[in-house]
Predict the structure.
Amino acid sequence: MIELSDVHKAFGSNRVLRGVNLRVETGTSMVIIGGSGTGKSVAIKCILGLVQPDSGTITLDGRDVTKGDRDAFLARFGMLFQGGALFDSLPVWQNVAFRLLRGSLKRPKDEAREIAIEKLRRVGLTAEAADKFPAELSGGMQKRVGLARAIAADPEIIFFDEPTTGLDPIMSGVINDLIREIVEEMGATAITITHDMTSVRAIADQIAMLHDGAIKWTGPVDRMDDSGDPYLDQFINGRAEGPIAAVR
Amino acid sequence: MRLLLHPLALLGRNVLAALAVVGRIALFALETVSHLFRPPFYAREFGHAVMQIGWLSLPVVGMTALFTGGALALQIYAGGSRFNAETVVPSIVAIGLTRELGPVLGGLMVAARVASSIAAEVGTMKVTEQIDALVTLSTNPMKYLTLPRVLAATLSVPVLVGVGDVIGIMGGFLVGVGRLDFGAGTYLHNTLDFLEAWDVISGLVKGAAFGFIVALMGCYFGMHSGRGAQGVGRATKAAVVASSVLILAANYLLTELFFSA
């Protein structure tokens, strides 16, 4: 279980997180929604230690994430970045097998390549893509490679940062279905951040609405439409009028 | 506006900001060096960096040395002829190149070519979240990106300087023999007779220091790049300017250290 308690983070005078409290149960798929610039990415970067919170605590299975063996901690995670964040200088298969080619999870090169090709197949890419460079792939294919890299070492927890941004609706649907299937198949805990409501309905078990640096509403996806929460209502219906200012 | 009316406050703010950058760069340098003694090491990244920084800089450093050696021979001949000392051309060309011009001009050319490319590459990795991705894949960016580049530059720039010395002396030789009527044997004889080992070694040590500076600045400004194309552009410019100025400053300090009486 991942738990954030009263997490604050400011960049200069910009207070991005103002007391975030969130609990994600093991094996569930949590989707954090909220407008652009509300701190969704900062929240998951705080969990991973990519950004240090100013105050508050973040625990994984009851243990403070800032303490203990960092490598062992990170080995439990996989992450799909918004732009893919693939390494341009490495061919696709080495991107996917990056963790398997070095560090504590290192395996022989042939075995790592085999696993990479199997993971690429899992996300719908052929073995021919394995030896291409990321720049030779379309946006949708790069997202799939990013997804394959996120699941390459069979992580317990997977983060998806805006998984469908920049993709056409059909490709978005494909990626959403893949994420749902993979999370169920692996029994992983997933945290997805998005403002794409189609993704929310396809991926989520639970939803958390982040606004003004705090969680305004959290609950199961099937209660989303009759939550009675004015922030969530305005957001999921895409209305300009409501408690969330249209111009931020 | 208020700051403009209070010049001391403006000066103080800028001095504090500059000192903060110096402190951050010093800590960055110390952290880089500390990784030299802590595994894991990325040999493949190091080999790739040696190719990019050392081998592929050879043409530009070689051409710089060749033309500098030739121009130096012409200048020293013209200056020397004012007091009938034309015969010093080979030895002054050799000493001038090995002690000063080889390392400094080679270092500046490497700064232009390598600091810019490292800052642009690492900066782009920063803004496209590739550095965050490295961390999530349990790979320390200082070990994977910075150390291999800094080590490769520190070891390969002295080699470039050494090759540049030979090419520069050859430039002087070609001009001396072809344009200034020196005998080939006499030119080489004069070069070797007056050149001491320390002239060459001091230049190579300078080359190592300049290589360290160039790669460190490229990595530092790349890792601290701002957002977007503009951020990467600023990081690249800052890396080239900082490494060029630091090379010239370090050159003065090392010359003072090596050659002051």
User: Anything to note?
Assistant: Chain B has a mean pLDDT of 94. DSSP finds ten helices and no strands in chain B. The radius of gyration of chain B is 22 Å.
